[in-house]
UniProtKB/TrEMBL annotation:
Source species of the chain: Marixanthomonas spongiae
Domain named Phosphofructokinase: residues: 7-283
Catalyzed chemical reaction(s): beta-D-fructose 6-phosphate + ATP = beta-D-fructose 1,6-bisphosphate + ADP + H(+)
Annotated protein name in UniProt: ATP-dependent 6-phosphofructokinase
Coiled-coil spans in chain: none
Subcellular location: Cytoplasm
GO cellular component assignments: 6-phosphofructokinase complex
Keywords: Allosteric enzyme, ATP-binding, Cytoplasm, Glycolysis, Kinase, Magnesium, Metal-binding, Nucleotide-binding, Transferase
UniProt-listed Enzyme Commission number(s): 2.7.1.11
Record gene name: pfkA
Length: 328
């Protein structure tokens, strides 16, 4: 165990995700377990630059495991992208005598953290906190499971009304660059079609497929569209196109938007966040830095920030095949 680390800071950065509070709680309680101090940084890198700090003890994080969002707040900081901003952040850390930091966020946050480590040789480990599950080096990210459950629950409700009116519903879900939410929630909610950014199905193939569904006796349909999908780029225009080409369908659009980010974390996310939070403190105390802690085959893993940032997750072709088969 490193004797040099007496005080660890923790912050959340980028988009919030359910389970971030559980991760902060695990970091705080792990610090208490090891008898070292823990400092919460409010508003991500922005608060780091401004020295917006608060000492966190084990009781400060009571009743936190079940709360969505992040009580430390999150932010996107333009100033941290400048050398001057990062200098200020380093001075704040020095002033508060903080020895190491845990950054909970997405790949943008890890990029900022790794630049900071290079410039100031300051120890940082990252935890993947994003609903998009788009980070290389971990099977899942904190918040992803909760977001999937939220999407499935919403689509189940939409299906009730789709069935009652013989309607076709286009449901837009989050995922600018990755179709992970769309693909998994689409299978889980029994969608007829799933449109994802990694695959360009083409509008004509979509129409053909919907015609086949109609012939096969389907009277209503759910199409899950990832927000970054190429054909569904503007989901309202896609709805118009389908109505023009398939006039037997009444098409409706639902954009799920930010409800996907909110809500109490699922049990899976709470356990994941707790495991990753404890490992983050263990890793810093072991003298590790410049890494993200992830999970692979239910085992804790570490991956250098450089790899987590550079690589992207491959599309799971087995899931695409399953989606095709089960929507027949
Ligand atoms: P999400 O996946 O939810 O979008 P993220 O961590 O990828 O999360 P970003 O907005 O991309 O979210 O990044 C969060 C913050 O990280 C930025 O606001 C900025 O302060 C910092 N950051 C991102 N890229 C850099 C960079 N190249 N240099 C310095 N800081 C950066």
């Amino acid at each position: 165990m490193s004797q040099n680390i007496q005080k660890i800071a923790v912050l959340t950065s980028g988009g919030d995700s359910p389970g971030m509070n559980a991760a902060i709680r695990a970091v705080v309680r792990s610090c208490a377990f090891h008898k070292i101090k823990c400092i919460g940084v409010f508003r991500g890198f922005e608060g780091l630059i401004e020295g917006d700090f608060k000492t966190l003890g084990p009781r400060t994080v009571k009743n936190m495991i079940n709360r969505g969002g992040t009580f430390l707040k999150s932010a996107r900081s333009k100033a941290f992208k400048t050398k001057e901003g990062r200098e200020k952040a380093y001075q704040q850390l020095q002033k508060e005598q903080i020895d190491a930091m845990v950054v909970i966020g997405g790949d943008g946050s890890f990029t900022g953290a790794s630049i900071f480590i290079e410039e100031f040789n300051f120890p940082i480990v990252g935890l993947p906190g994003t609903i998009d599950n788009d980070i290389y080096g971990t099977d899942v990210t904190i918040g992803y499971d909760t977001a999937l459950n939220t999407v499935v629950e919403a689509i189940d409700k939409i299906r009730d009304t789709a069935n009652s009116h013989n309607r076709l519903f286009l449901v837009e879900v989050m995922g600018r660059n990755a179709g992970s939410i769309a693909l998994n929630a689409g299978i889980g909610a029994g969608a007829e079609e799933i449109l994802i950014p990694e695959e360009n199905l083409g509008r004509d193939r979509l129409i053909d497929s919907l015609k086949r569904s109609k012939k096969a006796g389907k009277t209503s349909s759910i199409i899950v569209v990832s927000e970054g999908d190429q054909i569904g780029k503007n989901i309202f225009k896609l709805a118009d196109y389908i109505e023009e080409n398939l006039n037997e369908y009444e098409v409706r659009v639902t954009v799920l938007g930010h409800i996907q980010r909110g809500g109490a974390p699922s049990c899976y996310d709470r356990v994941l966040a707790s495991r990753l939070g404890v490992s983050a403190v263990d890793s810093l105390l072991d003298g590790k830095s410049n890494i993200m802690i992830g999970i692979s085959h239910n085992q804790i893993t570490t991956v250098p920030f450089s790899e987590a940032i550079k690589n992207s997750n491959e599309l799971d072709l087995e899931l695409v095949r399953v989606a095709d088969i089960v929507s027949t």
